[in-house]
Structures are given as structure tokens and as C-alpha cells.
Amino acid sequence: MKIFIADDEPEIRKSLKEILEDENFEVETFATGKTLLKQLKNERPSLILLDVWLGKEDGITILEECKKIYPTLPVLMISGHGTIEIAVTATKRGAVDFLEKPLSIEKVLQAIDGIVKSDQKNLTSDIKLEYDEILGNSPAIQKVKFAIAQAASTNARVFIYGENGTGKELVAKTIFKNSKRKDSPFVEMNCAAIPEELIESELFGFTKGAFTGATDSRIGKFEAANGGTLFLDEICDMSLSTQAKVLRILQEQRFEKLGSTETITVDVRIIAATNIPVEEAIRDGKFREDLYYRLNVIPITIPPLRERTSDIPLLVDYYISKTLEENNLPTKKIESEAVSILQNHFWPGNIRELKNVMERLCIMTVGSTIAANDARDALKGFKTANEMVELGDFRKAKEEFERQYIIKTLQTNEGNVTRTSRVLGIERSHLYRKMKSLNISSDQYTDG
Questions:
Q1: In CA terms, which of 63, 126, 280, 400 is 20 to 30 Å from 104?
Q2: Which residue, 334, 326, 346, 339, is CA-closest to 397?
Q3: pLDDT tens digit string along 199-244?
Q4: pLDDT band at residue 312 under the 50/70/90 scheme
Q5: How far apart are CA 101 and CA 85, in angstroms?
Q6: pTM of the model
Q7: What is the total count of domains within the chain?
Q8: Could you tell me which residues carry 4-aspartylphosphate (predicted)?
Q9: How are the residues of the chain apportioned to helix, strand and coil, as percentages rounded to the nearest 5?
Q10: Any idea what the Cα angle at residue 353 is, between residues 350 and 357, rounded to 5°?
Q11: Helix (H, G, I), strand (E, B) or coil at 343
Q12: H-helix or E-strand containing 403?
């Protein structure tokens, strides 16, 4: 959760930044109202702490400008020259609270806590019924829901990070469904699923004769999404040359089709997603840092299922009900011990894996009760989360579980990569890359 601090006193900026960062807030400071407003046009924080006077700049005027950009953004005014008259004026102009210097750290934290809770409640209640399958009450998933609500209330670009199967596409669609662009197109493209030589024609479109095989003209994803939202999944798989062209569109909102010099102007909101740590991709020279900063206005990190195991009972009940209804099956219940076994699983495939396991249990379990042994059988061949801890290094442990998961699925599908990718819910090209990185050969799992 990000907080902007605008104060002309360096010591105040420094001390507030340190205190709030200790409380796990992300903080950015500004010495002038001008620099604050400039950054505000690029990024919406959760809260602003604004001094009534910043040198010769009037904080009340800056408050009004902030409200013009984001009418619902909470602004907490602070001042060393506070009067009742100034406090009343600030409140009338939209400030949520007013604190006098010297600042009491306890009062500052109490005020921020109250504002954040109130803002979170207001935002999430607006789209409470539109979260679809983003289920759970854990602090980790509540943070995601709050970020979704913030993103849905603006036109700002969004960058989603999460492991495979965590629900990045679902988050993107939820933002779209609750945004002002919900009646306009939602266009999606998986950058990892399209060969590098074809990705630009998919994004920008092409004219007849632009290249061999271009027998007709075709619009691209950007043009198709005009007025709406374009979801670029696995964007870190995009080539650097294509990234440069996407950056230009973000800067200028215009482009040319392949084979054409005619400029097309578009109004498109971008939601990007990746399962690769972006900082690593930037460091390795695989992703442009300037493009990342353009896209990362509202960052959303989706936690893996193993980090929110308290949500598993709710998810289990949901997927049981859904599977029974979709397949017209008789009522089934699940034993609490079986749920505990599911909670102790590492879930390398996250929500997608849980959904598949619950569908299998509902369909294959004989009788009206899913017992502990049924859950054990469904997860046979995989280590538990507790066993995983004993493996030591987290990254190596994660890779080992991914390797086991892919091998087990390959065995079930007799080494057929196409069927395996379908079961895992990932693109075949992505599975091939994953198999190569984990040193897995499908040949050894083929019968005969």
C-alpha cells in the first residue's frame, strides 16, 4: 500500500518515511506540490499526507488539484501553523483529517489506519458481488481485492505478478468488469503462446501483402481493444524489439499496421501480467525497465495458494458445489481430515491445481463422502508442504515440486505433451520451455 508525503521540511519527510516503511507501507516523498502533482498524474497512491504550506505553495490549493485528479483519494493534511479556520477549510475542500505539528507518531498511525480501513471498506463494498472466483478471507487475498478495487476505480495501467495457476487472468477480468470500460471490448493475448515472428502482426495488425501469407488485411489486438482493455499475459516473453513498439504506443497512443504508413490512434487501457520476477528479467536484459515503469502504475501481486492455506476450506466447498452442479452429481461432503490434508499440500499449480483435484475427487469418489484416504490418493506422488520445508532452499524446493508435478501428469498422459499441457492449463510452448529448464524428457514417459 503506497503513501505519498508532501512536506517542505526534510526532517519531517525523512522521519515519516522511516516510520511508515517500518509499518510495511511503501512511501514516496515530495518537497513541493508541483512534483507531487506531476507524479500523481502517473500513479494513484492509497493516501497522501500533505502539508498546509510547502514553502510558498498553498497546500489547500494543492489539495484541490489532487481531488481533481482523483476525487475519492484520501488526503490527510498536516501543519505547524494549524488553526480551526484552516482545518475547517481543508475539510470542506476534501481532506479526511487534519493533524498539527509536532506530529505524534501514535496519532499519525491511528489516523492512517482509520483512513485505510475506511477506504478499503468503501472500495471493496462497491464491487463485493463481482469478485467471481477470487475467494478467501485471508489478509493476503484481502490485499489483492483491495488492489483490484483501486484499479477498477481508475484508468491507470496495472501490472499483475503471480505464479502459474494463481488467477492472473481472473484478476484482470475482475478489474475490467468493475471499471468504467466494462461495456467496451476486453481483448486478451498470451505473449508466450505466440511465436516471436508473429506477435507483432497479432498486436498491430497487417495489410494485405505485408508479408508472405498475408492474403487479407487484419486488425490487431490494440485496434480491437480500442476504447476498452487489452490484457497482455506473460508479457516478459515478449521480445525486446516488440517491447519497444509497445512502449511507443503507451507514450503516444498511436501505431501503424505492418505494411502500412497510416497512423492509427487508439485509447486502450493495458493490464499486463507475468509469472516471472520482473526485477530478474530486467537485470538479465530480457525486459525493458522503461516499459516496466510505464506499466507498473498499480502493481498487484497474487499470493500462491501455499501462502493462504486458511482460504482452502472455503475454496474446497466452492469447487465441490460447482463441480456437482456442472456435472449433475448427487450431494457430496468432505471430511475435515481430508480438508487438513489438502491444506498441507504444497500446491505448485495453485488454484488451478486445487480446482482440478476437487473435480477429480467429486467425480471419482464412490459414495457421498470425500474421505481422508480419497484426498491422499488424489495427491499421491507429491510431497506435503511440511516435507517441502525440509528440502531447504525455497527456489530449489519450488522447482522440485514443479518437476514432480509435470512428471506425474506426463506419466498419466503417457508422455503426450499436448494432453499434459491441456490438463495443466498452460500453453504447450510454455510447457516445453518448462520441461527444458527442469531437464524433463517426455520420451521416458511414453509407453512402448
A1: 63
A2: 346
A3: 888 998 888 877 777 778 888 999 999 999 999 999 999 999 999 9
A4: very high
A5: 16
A6: 0.62
A7: 3
A8: 51
A9: 50, 15, 35
A10: 140
A11: helix
A12: helix 394-412
Q: Report pLDDT digits (tens) over 13-27.
A: 998 888 888 777 889
Give CA angle at 343 (339, 346), nearest 5°. 140
| Closest alpha carbon to 62 in 44, 43, 35, 82 | 35
Q: Which domain holds residue 85?
A: 2-125
- 156 in the same domain as 293: yes
Nearest 5 degrees, angle CA 155-CA 192-CA 143? 45
Same domain, 274 and 141: yes
Q: Are residues 359 and 379 in the same domain?
A: yes
Which residue type sits at 435? M
Three cell numbers at 320?
465441490
Asked which of 272, 301, 330 is the last residue of a domain, the reply is: 301
Does pLDDT of 49 surpass 60?
Answer: yes
C-alpha cell at 100: 498539527
Give the mean model confidence (pLDDT) for residues 356-384: 88
Chain centroid offset of residue 412 CA: 32
* pLDDT for 391: 45
Q: Is residue 148 part of a domain?
A: yes
